[in-house]
Structures are given as structure tokens and as C-alpha cells.
Amino acid sequence: MSGAVLVAVAAAIGNLLQGWDNATIAGAVLYIKKEFQLESEPTIEGLIVAMSLIGATCITTCSGGVSDWLGRRPMLILSSVLYFLSGLVMLWSPNVYILLLARLLDGFGVGLAVTLVPVYISETAPPEIRGLLNTLPQFTGSIGMFLSYCMVFGMSLMPLPNWRLMLGVLFIPSLIYFVLTIFFLPESPRWLVSKGRMSEAKKVLQRLRGREDVAGEMALLVEGLGVGAETSIEEYIIGPANEDPEDQDISADKDRIKLYGPEEGLSWVARPVTGQSMLGIVSRHGSVANQSALGLVDPLVTLFGSVHEKLPETGSMRSTLFPHFGSMFSVGGNQARNEEWDEESVVREGEEYQSDGAGDSDDNLHSPLISRQTTSVEKDMVPAAHGSLVGSMRQGSHANAGEPVGSMGIGGGWQLAWKWSEKEGPDGKKEGGFKRIYLHQEGIPGSRRGSIVSMAGADAPADSEYVQAAALVSQPALYSKELMKQHPVGPAMVHPAETAKGSTWTDLFEPGVKHALIVGVGIQILQQFSGINGVLYYTPQILEQAGVGVLLSNLGLSSSSASLLISGMTTLLMLPSIAVAMRLMDIAGRRSLLLTTIPVLILSLLILVIGSVVNLGSVVNAAISTVSVVLYFCFFVMGFGPIPNILCAEIFPTRVRGICIAICALTFWICDIIVTYSLPVLLKSVGLAGVFGMYAIVCVISWVFVFLKVPETKGMPLEVITEFFSVGAKQVAASKDN
Which H helix or E strand runs over 668? Predict the structure, then answer.
């Protein structure tokens, strides 16, 4: 995965520049005031600092839609250009007005980077390390702040500190970022697939994953194009087909799914069962946790939790039982494939199959998603037209898809498959269509060899190996009901470019998307009002009380230099904590980290309130305040710092991800402005103890919100996450109706 890691590190430099800028302006404004004589004009002074926030807020309003239109990479390139230009203009800045313009340009660059870097990393990272890689922006941002404080502190020791040089140095790292975005960062493969540029997406995925065969993940990305399809939860038992003699007549049972592997003679069968899957049980009845919370816990949270609670200890479905559980795309292995499916070939495409009572087929119909090659297994199993896999599907058998990622299928223990299903229409005629299935193993086999998992309604030989699996079943993204009505020869599939013609505002009102927006916007609001700005504002005062300022003054440092050094030391404390969070993000998970770290924030704020109200002596007060601030910073950057942006980059469908991220980011910036400028007013009206008390109350509300509404998304493919939101939203609606 080194390709994905290096790309994420390069993209996260955009956040390093944001951290660099935040710290630099905090130091430079001390000298800007003196040169332009702004001591009597606090409004102009505040505007110089705030102009970056204003620029970020303005650019965020359109960044999402433009990134959905032009792509993620062009927006990151534009961000680096804006950083570079703002650095040069700040280096020049002959007056306040030019400086304000430069700060506005800088804000544009900050807004694009903060909004789109998490999206870009989420869309390029493999599910297993997506949390780790998406914590990089927080880490690089803190590194940027620390390096900037060190630089400004060094300059403050000069006889005549030059604020233009402090601010203008930004153009050097931004030039490095520009070179990386141009020559190293590829376009997001998910965005490329959404535009039908399949060949480019395949090459990017090959580079990111470090292997040639990425057809399974390509299929997954295509499936992520749909928004709002009807999704149901089904349950299956999966076992080797060749151990059950009934499997020789697989076409007799249209409820079974045939799963093909790349090796000749290797296949398995998934049989539908009821009442065994934890996911299925939860989806029908709700969990004990849900009932114990008086029904307040979102069904979506319970659904996600049921998946993570039942992960097998020894790995995925593939690694536990089927070491060659492969992709339908690699059946046969060496045959030529038709993968040149780009926007130049926007035609209805699909593999041939035998239609009802007719042998008509069109050899000119091709599909990049369903290979045309065949094996003796298929010929022996199913009498399909030309032995094709879709022919097998048409006869009631099914094909597995999803190239193994490591040993995890499409990621997180999920496998991708399709099936052909038929039902009688109103006129008595049979109507058929494809169904897409995300399969997930649940539980651990009773034994590595020689035993079975007993399933209701499923008899199996005693020397077989079986697993139970839950499945999300939905209509494929490329399936067209309109084309099906025309009774085509071949599956009614459309080109991805036709499926994702662009997001519309109506997509935002699809129940799953609306549900995800509530989670994303809610957690961004609560993060900003949880007190980080207030604690940052108060930190120098606390450390001054602790005697750090006196110690630094004795070393001959001026008050300005001492303040900068204190801020740099505070930032340095964050780095080890963020490193721990990076390690835990994909192990403990996002939800677990939030539920664990927020109580520490509450405790730290309450101690600060007590320290402000109760006089325990100057030494004791300073000591407990210092410890509280350090604890607050360390646990904030482990949880509430990076996780809101990580979650927002994961929970929206590809087609509307840009717009939804922009809405969440706009919420972030507006709340940032409100909190920053309300703090001095609140300090005057309710005092320090009142402010920290309010922040503690918000943190309590945040914990409740996370417990009730925020699901655990670790290790799951983005497409599966959005499918769960769709299912969960419909369950919420159904429960309200009941």
C-alpha cells in the first residue's frame, strides 16, 4: 500500500501549509500592529487575522460542486497556487489593504485544502488504513504550526523582526506542494469512474495498490455511483459447492448464489437462510443495546455495530476458509480482457446471455465489468450461451466479484457479487434483473476442518467448512429499468458516465444522504463549540501563571518571544497524541475513540472551572490548570480533532460527496468564526469559569450525540458505508411510521 500512503502524505502537505499560516499570523500580527500603528484600530487588526477565515468560508460554498465537476486534483493544484500567490503578495505588502488581499487569497487556499484533502485521501486509501491516512492532515497541520512557531520565535530574537518575511516564507513550502500536486498526485479513481474514464481509473488504482489486477475494486467503484436504490438485508450460508452433490443442478434453485474462484474447479455456493445473521437479526428486531437505550439509539448505529461485533478473529471469509476466493474478473486468469471502456465508447454494454426461449445473442456487446472468458467449471456447471458468466447468472447461478485486497475481498471482510433474479410481473410474464450483493462473513467456523455451522433450513455434510454471511442486496448502479422494459438482448446496463451525469440538489434529500448530512453537520457544530478555541486562547495565560513566563524572562526573552515559545511548546505536545490516534483509528475505531476521549475533555474543562472559581493557592491553581490544558489538547487531537473530518469524508455517496463535504466544511468555518468572535464577549459577560462551563456542557451533549447517532465506519469500503446509511434511514422512517 506504499503508493496510497505516499499519495496521502503528499496531499496532507496542504494542511501543513494551513497550520503554518495559522501560527505565522499569530506571531506576525504583533509586529504588523507596530508598523501600521493599529493599536488604536482593533477592527483592522482583527480583520487581518480574520480575512483568512472569511476567504476559506467563501471558497467552501462552491468548492464541493466544482470538485464534483472538475475533479479533486485540479482543486488541490489551485489550492497550492493560491498559497504561493498569497505568500508572494504578503512578502511585498506595501500597505494594509494589499495585506488584506493577500490574506484573502491565503484563505481561499486554506479553504480548498481543508475541505478536499480528507475527501481525496478517503477516495484513494484502502479501507484497512483509511483512518490512519486521514489522520495525516491533523498531524501535518500540527507539524506546520510547530515549524512556524520555531521560525517566528527565531526571527523575534532579531533586533528588527521582519513580519513580511515571516508571512512571505509561505511561498517556499507552497511551491513544493504545487510541484507534488502537478507531478505526483493522481486524480481520485472514484471521481474518474464517476465520469466514465475507466482506463484512467484503472491505471491510478494499479499505481495506488501496487498490483495489476484491480478489476474487483473497479467494479466496487462503479457500484458506488448509485444514490438511493432500494436495499435489503439478506442472510446466507456459504460453503464449497463441490462437496454438495445437489450443487450440480444449481440452476434448479434460483435463490442460490454461485461464487466463482480463479482456479479451475474452485467454486462455492451461498444459500439463503433466515434468522442466523447478526446483521439480519438487528435489522429486523433491533439489538439489546438499542432496547436498553429506550429506543433512542439510531438503528443505523446498531446496524454498523452488529458488523464490527461479529468480525471473525482469524480474518475474512476468504482468508479463513477460501484461500483462493477470487474475482469473477480473474476467472481463467490468462485470457485477454476487454477493459478499454472509456467515455469515447458510451454505448449500452453487456455480456450476452440466452434470452427466454431464444438463442439470440450479440457478440458485439461487451462489458468491462463481466469478463467474456470461460472455464471448464462454467461449461460443466451451466449450459449458458458461450459459457459466459452472465449466462450463468441468467440461469439462476451467480458470480463473485471483488478482487482480494490483501486478503479482505473489497475491504473489511466484504465480498462483492451479483445475481440474476426473476419475478412475475402484473401481466404474468417473468421479469428479470440483476441484483448487486455485498457479502460479509459473520462469526467463526466451529472448526477449521470437519465441522459445520448449523443453519436453519440448510443441511450440509459433516466434513464441510461453512460460514454464515450477511448481505446487502440492491440494484446495481449500472442497471437500467428503462432499458429492461425494451426487452434487450443482454443485461440492461448503462455506461457509468450515463449513471453519474452529475449530482443534483434532489439527491441531497434521498433518505440515506439526508441522514448522513445530519451526522456530518451535527458533529462539525459540536466540535467547534467543544472549547478548543477557548483553551487555545487561554493557554498562554495559564502557562504564564504556572511560572513559565517568569522562567523565560529570566533567560532574557521578551514577552513576545516568550509567548511564541510557549505556543510552540503547546503544539509540540500534540504530536505524540496524534501519532497514537493514527495507530488507533483503524483498530479501536472512530466512534470508540470519540466515546473514550470526550469524557476526558469534560473532566479537563470542569477542573479548569474549579481552578477559576476556587482559590487553592497560586501554585496549586497553576499546576492543575496546566495539567488540565495539556490533557485537553492531547485528548482533543486524538478524537474530536481529526474524526469529524474523517467521518464526513466517508459517509456520503461518490456522486454527491463534493457537495455534502462542502456543506459540512461551510458549517465548520461559520461555527469557527462564531466561536472565535464570541469568546471575548463571553469572557466579559460570564467570565472564564462560565465559558469553560458552557464548553463542558457542549462536550456532554457531544458524547450523547456520538453515542446515539454516530456509527462505527472503520475498515469498511466507502460504498458499503453509504449503503448502510440508506438502509438505516429507511429503518428510521419505518420505525417512525410504526
Answer: helix 657-709
Q: Are 308 and 712 in contact (CB under 8 A)?
A: yes
Residues 6+ apart with CB under 8 A from 203: none
**pLDDT for 567:** 82
SS3 113: helix
CA distance 376 to 263: 11
Sheet containing 414-424, strands listed edge to edge, beginning at the edge strand earlier in sequence: 257-260, 267-273, 231-240, 467-474, 430-442, 414-424, 398-401
Domain count, the chain: 3
**More confident position, 47 or 271:** 47
- Of 510, 470, 505, 476, the C-alpha closest to 493 is 476
DSSP state of 455: B
What are the tens digits of pLDDT across the range 175-201? Answer: 999 999 999 999 999 999 988 899 999
Q: Which residue has the cell 477449521?
A: 448
CA-to-CA separations, 415 to 200, 331, 399, 427, in angstroms, rounded:
24, 16, 11, 36
Buried b (16+ CB within 10 A) or exposed e, 398-436: bbbbbbbbeebbbbbbbbbbbbbeeeeeeeeeeebbbbb
Question: What's the mean pLDDT in 296-317?
Answer: 68
3 state DSSP class of 415 = strand
Residue 397 maps to a domain: no
Confidence at 57, pLDDT banded by 50, 70, 90: very high
Structural domain for 266, as ranges: 229-244+253-273+434-442+466-480
The span from the CA of 732 to the CA of 515, in Å, is: 9
Question: The CATH number of the domain where 545 resides is what?
Answer: 1.20.1250.20
The helix (run of H) or strand (run of E) holding residue 33 is helix 13-36
Question: Mean pLDDT highest for which of 48-57, 222-231, 293-302?
Answer: 48-57
CA angle centred on 438, ends 435 and 444, rounded to 5°: 135
The rounded distance, in Å, linking the Cα atoms of 276 and 471 is 12
Do 576 and 657 sit in the same domain of this protein?
yes
Residues 113 and 34 in one domain: yes
Q: Output the CA–CA distances (angstroms, integers) from residue 35 to 102, 156, 191, 541, in the order listed.
A: 17, 15, 48, 26
- Provide the CA 489 distance to its chain's centre, in angstroms: 39
238 and 166 housed in the same domain:
no
DSSP assignment string, 681-705: HHHHHHHHHHHHHHHHHHHHHHHHH
pTM > 0.85: no
- Residue 181: all three cell numbers together: 500536486
Answer whether residue 342 is part of any domain.
no
| Residue 355: inside a domain | no
Q: Is position 336 within any domain?
A: no
Same domain for 507 and 544, yes or no, is: yes
pLDDT at 46 over 60: yes
In 157-309, which ranges are continuous DSSP H helix? 163-168, 171-183, 189-194, 198-209, 215-223, 278-285, 288-292, 299-309
Tell me the β-bridge partners of 421: 433
For 513, the enclosing helix (H) or strand (E) is helix 511-528
d(CA 472, CA 232) in angstroms, rounded, equals 6
Higher-confidence position of 110 and 726 = 110
Partnered with residue 279 across adjacent β-strands are none
